[in-house]
Specification:
Shape: globular
Order of helices and strands: HEEEEEEEEEEE
Number of strands: 11
Distance between the termini: 20 Å
């Protein structure tokens, strides 16, 4: 029986092979003889499902195979702040990239729910996607067209999809990237 490390390695090799296949060609071009460019290839997507304790993140044209290190799906309220933490998930790609997912609600005159997916890369660069819901109105500073939540939770499966950028960035900030995440709590 293969160990868990071998399973991750086999998945990573398989995913890398699938993701690079569209770029392969016998003549360096498409079937009609035109050069193949990144714009010609479909963007990578997350798989439909993952095993418990595993995840997958796509940021633009980059992919990350993830190991879920911690996950809490039962809400708890901090008695000092009154903030209800509804979800936390921590994962990494075994090379130093860290992923944090959270959903928290602050009670007040109008309750505000904040959903965040943050990615801290090995070099220290941080990208995040974040949405706020207050009184039924969803706001996303990086994506004014967003109308629904950033996170979807089904049982122990967490999905996210949004626009990622540096903390404090807006839709006008250059270099924003679309991102998708799927992760299953162990």
């Amino acid at each position: 029986m293969a160990g868990r490390g071998w399973t991750h390695l086999a998945c990573a090799v398989g995913i890398a092979a699938v993701l690079t296949l569209p770029a392969c060609s016998d003549d360096g071009g498409s079937d009609d003889g035109a050069p193949t460019t990144a714009a010609d290839r479909p963007a990578p997507t997350v798989p439909a499902d993952v095993e418990p304790g595993e995840g997958f993140l796509v940021l633009g044209d980059r992919t990350f195979l993830l190991a879920v290190r911690a996950c809490a799906l039962d809400p708890f309220t901090d008695p000092e702040t009154g903030v209800t933490i509804e979800l936390t998930l921590d994962a990494d790609d075994n090379t130093g990239t860290l992923i944090g997912v959270s959903r928290a609600t602050v009670q007040g005159e109008l309750a505000t729910t904040t959903e965040t997916v943050s990615v801290t890369e090995v070099e220290g660069e941080v990208l995040e996607a974040q949405r706020f819901e207050r009184d039924g109105v969803v706001s996303d500073l990086r994506d004014s067209d967003s109308a629904g939540p950033l996170l979807a939770v089904t049982g122990n499966l967490v999905r996210a999809g949004g626009v990622f950028g540096p903390p404090g960035s807006t839709a006008a900030t250059p270099g924003l990237v679309d991102g998708s995440l799927i992760a299953r709590c162990p």
